[in-house]
Each structure stands twice: as C-alpha cells, then as structure tokens.
Design a protein that fits this description.
This protein has about 250 residues and is an all-alpha fold. It has ten helices and no strands. The longest helix has 26 residues.
Length: about 250
C-alpha cells in the first residue's frame, strides 16, 4: 500500500503482535491507516474486555452440545410408530368393529391404500426435519391421489348399500377422526421440533397429511357402517377438515 511492497516469509507464522514485525514493516504500519485497520482487525479478540452483555458472550454462554438427528428412514419409522400408538389407543377406547365388518378383499384394498399414505407422509415429515434432504414426496398430488383412490374404492365396494340421504345428526365418527388427527398432530409436532423448520408451510402441511391418514386409519378400524354415503360424508369430512386446518395454520406461520 502507498507504493510500498513488503515481502513476507511464507514460512513465518503470523503473529498479531507489533514486536514480531520487522523495522520496515513497523514504519509502514505507522504511516498507513489502511494497514493499521487491518492489523487491528487481525489482533486476537479479548472476550473478557468486551462490554457486558455482549453478542460474543451471549453466544458463548448459550452454546450447548447437540445431538445429531436420526436418518430420514429412522425418523419415518418413528412417525409410523406414532400412527400405531394412536390407532391402538383409539381402538382400545372405541373398539374395532369396522375391521371385522370388512370383507377380506375390502380389508386388503383399503388398508393397502392407507398404508401407502402412512409410509409416504411419514417420509415427507421426516424429510422436512433435515435441511438439504431430497424432497421425493410431492405433498398435494399424492394426498389428492390417495384420497381419490380410497374413496373411489369405497364407492366400488359399498355401492349396493349407498344411501345419499344426509343424516339428521352429526355422527360420532367425525369427532373420533378429528380426535385421532389432533393427537397425531400434537405428538408429531413435538418430534418435528427437534429438526429444522426450513419450510414451515410444507412441514405443517406434511403433519396435517399424516394426521389425516391417522384419522382415516382409526375410522376404518372402528366404524362398522359400510355405507358409501357415511364414509364419504363423515370419514371424508374429518380428513378434509384436517387438511384444511393444516393449510390455514401453514399459511399463518410460513
């Protein structure tokens, strides 16, 4: 700087003490304001001399050991376990008459669709927890496809007992489904808090989709009413309300 070129020995370790400089370097440093600023910035930081409270002391005082997150597969398995726990709890409280009322064919088809949804949305929530993980599960297309597949299968299997007359009172299935979804969302949110909410909207919608699958699973096991109109209105209504609530909350906190 200022027309003076100083050659530094690459083998010499830099020491931000003035005594380590050569005579020519000290003279240049006395005359060059830019080098004085650089030299001052390179000086070691004395944290104890900083005013209290300071940014550095606050950061240093808040440092804690971190525990690495499990892999996406293990996290997905954890969310799948949450579904099983919620199902077991509501089956214990409300019964499993719907499971035994289904024919073996209907049971296999309906629970296969629900199982695919549970697996995909468990992976979706797990991926949202880890920054930089690949997003292989598009939320809305899969959610719509699974809903159409499930309720389309219901229409085909229970077509002969369809009664489109709307019931006069709200059936308990709606509240059972919403209760299962709320419990799943609460437990899932506690688990998700350990991760990074890089995309809050997608994370909340993923939890909502998983909660909708939980509601559908519990209702299919519990409810023995094999009428397409009942399943469409009350089971489907519970899932729709859960997805709508997730979308609203996601927009609110994104």
């Amino acid at each position: 700087m200022n027309g003076l070129h100083i050659q530094f020995d690459p083998e010499r370790r830099f020491d931000p003490e003035r005594s380590s400089l050569t005579e020519a370097e000290r003279r240049h440093l006395d005359e060059c304001p830019s080098c004085q600023m650089l030299f001052g910035a390179a000086a070691p930081l004395d944290v104890a001399s900083l005013p209290r409270p300071s940014v550095v002391s606050t950061i240093l005082g808040d440092l804690k050991p971190v525990k690495p997150l499990p892999s996406v597969s293990r996290l997905a398995l954890i969310f799948g376990t949450v579904l099983i726990v919620v199902l077991a709890l509501f089956t214990y409280m409300a019964g499993a008459k719907g499971f035994f009322a289904l024919s073996p064919t209907a049971r296999m088809l309906l629970f296969s669709i629900i199982g695919v949804g549970a697996m995909l949305f468990s992976f979706s929530v797990a991926q949202q927890m880890i920054p930089g993980s690949l997003r292989r599960v598009p939320l809305w297309p899969i959610a719509i496809a699974l809903c159409l597949a499930f309720f389309g299968m219901v229409g085909l299997l229970f077509w002969d007992v369809t009664n489109w007359a709307p019931p006069r009172t709200i059936h308990a299935c709606l509240w059972i489904g919403l209760g299962a979804a709320a419990l799943t969302a609460a437990i899932g949110s506690l688990i998700v808090r350990r991760g990074a909410w890089a995309d809050r909207f997608s994370t909340i919608v993923s939890i909502g989709a998983l909660s909708g699958v939980s509601a559908l699973l519990v209702l299919t096991v519990h409810c023995p009413i094999l009428k397409a109109s009942h399943v469409f209105l009350w089971h489907g209504g519970a899932v729709l309300l859960v997805l709508l609530a997730a979308w609203i909350v996601g927009r609110r906190y994104e």
